[in-house]
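Entry 14. Structure prediction run on the chain below.
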Amino acid sequence: VRVQTFGGSDKSSNGHRYDSIPFANGMIRSGMSCQLIHYVHEEHDKFFSVAVKFDFIIVRCNPGQIKADGGSQERFDQSMRMMRKMGIQVWPSPDVMEFMGAKDALCKVAHLNIGLEDTLAYYSTEDFAAGFKKTMAFQPRVLKQNRGSSGEGIWIIKLKLGNYCTNFGERSCTDDEVLSLMEANDNHAEEHTVAELIEFCVNGRNDKSGTWTSKGVGKYLEGGKAAGGQLVDQRFCPRIVEGELRYNCVGDALVG
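Output returned:
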């Protein structure tokens, strides 16, 4: 995203994501040729004329960043699908990202013993406004946009007065209740009313949403479900400060 410092908060001063260089060096030390190529949407055809000369492609573009730079994620994904039809491997493929990378997967495990029942996904303004007011009145929240994984549009939200209800669904927040927010990409803090937050998430920056210092533009539901427009609302788990465990499985085998 060329209007952002280094191309985005997930990148180093060289313009690449922090782990892309170790990825490349690891493959080179294993005897492979590995080259880092920036995708620039104005040079889409030129990029793919070079890409087809490789045996496989590792995609390091976070979802949402191509669009934020003025390009088309859909056009990029379709060209990657064409590469796969030519026998060139693409990791991860657009279809894997679409069906396995979406944050609403959290909602599919909400009723398992590893999930939280007050985890909801929103695809419309009406569902978001009604659902968020109910969940926010119950417990501190993490509100996540579906696009991107660098922390932009991921908000930790608490009621400023801390007046949470005891049981989920006992009450709903009013539009004028004040929220304390922190965005995960840079940990900056803001204060807004419930109504201002909903307006920003749906329509972005305007008179109704107030003044925001976030680097993002809001509009998280833009384009609807088909275009990846959604918000996931889950309870904030305070033990996250202790760290997290990540397990990698291939089929039913734990490999890391």
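Residues 174 and 194 are 7 Å apart (CA to CA).
Filed with the rest of this week's runs.
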